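Hi support team,

I've been running sequence recovery on a batch of backbones for a student project. Most finish fine, but this one hangs at about 90% for roughly twenty minutes before it completes. I'm not sure whether the input is malformed or the queue is just slow. I've pasted the structure tokens below so you can try to reproduce it. Let me know if you need the job ID as well.

Thanks,
M.K.
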């Protein structure tokens, strides 16, 4: 878990600003769900045989005896909220987005943290392939507004409850005949859920995976049609994609479309192999978690990975607004008057720097110089008693006295906001 220091905050703010603009443009409303949920929600939703639930969840018993978990992802919590608040009765799809911290007990390394942040978008209550393509397009737009070029979207379809059992059987017998070549974890996974083996990052398992049967060859007609249509939408929208026939994603709820977005430019080496966005369709999750049937689709981007790529490529976030005015004060009464004056400047939208803890004019002027303001306001004991204040132009050193009541108006005329 890491601190996000002040110098990195502008990057995070920029990401959240772009996410907010793009998500709202596409009709998504913000939702905030609790960081803590019942562990059972993720055991059922994310899936008890997934690495996330099996190995990475921070779960504990509360004093009241509930089994709780720090959320490792957004999707199950948002679906719980959709069900709990009867959102099925709203016009469908209900489009929701969220940003915030998530927790996974990982081996910390570049781009992989134990507390990290995502922006997550979910469209619940619509089975159309257009929604899957729209989500991919939204993630592309967010990334390209953040300056990312050379993005590639890996897509696949992993079928539904009609065609998956047969594919799983095929996969099981394929892996059984090659179990000696798999890692110990995969020999176990193979029995619980052979799809998990496709997701293993061990080199030896990846070698076996490259020869495994491909899902696209065994999709039922409905899933095939859906997938073809998603690809047609992507073609039409000029979104570059690559069909990865073994992409399954490490969460249990997916049906049909799955996708991941990678950046092959300006990413630190360790990150080039990691997806910055991942998502897919999950038509059975709402029902599984106790709601009525509601097909859905969504995805999430990793903020730390995006920020790290932005920093690596020298892409600067928007420059923070810088103060043009500095308020220097000398003595107790001026200090007291300063607080009120600062509020008046804030109300007028003028950013003012100050060091209310300092008493020496020399120190304060040096500080004003360092901040690089155009004007310093000097409020001494005499001025405070007379209801006036000095405006000092920093480059020429020229000073003039104005009435305290007029100073905000005067400064409004002089500085660009
Ligand atoms: P996910 O693939 O587990 O999907 O995570 C999405 C993104 O979060 C990843 O592509 C990555 O950028 C980032 N991420 C994941 N784990 C870490 C970590 N330990 N440190 C830093 N970044 C990380 C989900 O979470 C699904 N809920 C996405 C989704 C929404 N599917 C449908 N709706």
């Amino acid at each position: 878990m890491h601190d996000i220091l002040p110098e990195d905050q502008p990057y995070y703010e920029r990401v959240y600003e772009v996410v907010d603009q793009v998500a709202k443009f596409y009709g998504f409303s913000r939702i905030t769900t609790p960081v803590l949920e019942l562990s059972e929600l993720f055991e059922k939703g994310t899936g008890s045989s997934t690495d996330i639930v099996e190995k990475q969840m921070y779960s504990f018993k509360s004093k009241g005896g509930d089994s709780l978990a720090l959320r490792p992802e957004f999707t199950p919590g948002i679906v719980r909220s959709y069900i709990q608040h009867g959102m099925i009765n709203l016009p469908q799809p209900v489009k929701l987005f969220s940003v915030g911290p998530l927790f996974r007990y990982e081996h910390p390394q570049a781009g992989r943290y134990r507390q990290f942040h995502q922006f997550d978008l979910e469209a619940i209550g619509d089975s159309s392939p257009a929604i899957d393509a729209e989500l991919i397009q939204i993630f592309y737009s967010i990334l390209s507004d953040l300056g990312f070029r050379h993005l590639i979207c890996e897509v696949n379809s992993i079928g539904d409850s009609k065609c998956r059992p047969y594919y799983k059987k095929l996969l099981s017998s394929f892996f059984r005949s090659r179990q000696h070549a798999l890692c110990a974890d995969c020999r176990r996974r193979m029995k619980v859920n052979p799809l998990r083996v496709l997701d293993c990052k061990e080199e030896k398992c990846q070698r076996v995976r490259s020869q495994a049967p491909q899902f696209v060859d065994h999709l039922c007609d409905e899933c095939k049609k859906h997938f073809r249509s998603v690809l047609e939408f992507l073609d039409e929208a000029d979104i570059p994609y690559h069909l990865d026939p073994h992409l399954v994603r490490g969460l249990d709820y997916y049906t049909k479309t799955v996708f991941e977005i990678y950046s092959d430019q300006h990413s630190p080496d360790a990150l080039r192999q990691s997806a910055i966005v991942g998502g897919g369709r999950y038509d059975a999750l709402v029902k599984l978690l106790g709601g009525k049937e509601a097909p859905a689709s969504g995805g999430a981007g990793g903020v730390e990975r995006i920020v790290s790529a932005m920093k690596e490529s020298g892409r600067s976030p928007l420059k923070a607004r810088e103060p043009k005015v500095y308020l220097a004060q000398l003595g107790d009464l001026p200090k007291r008057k300063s607080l009120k004056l600062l509020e008046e400047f804030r109300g007028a939208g003028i950013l003012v720097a100050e060091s209310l803890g300092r008493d020496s004019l020399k120190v304060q002027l040096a500080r004003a110089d360092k901040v690089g303001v155009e004007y310093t306001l000097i409020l001494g004991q005499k001025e405070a008693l007379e209801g006036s204040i000095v405006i000092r132009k920093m480059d020429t050193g020229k000073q003039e006295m104005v009435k305290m009541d007029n100073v905000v108006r005067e400064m409004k005329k002089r500085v660009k906001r």
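--
Follow-up from support: It reproduced on our side and the slowdown came from queue contention, not your input. The CA atoms of residues 134 and 264 lie 22 Å apart. No action needed from you.
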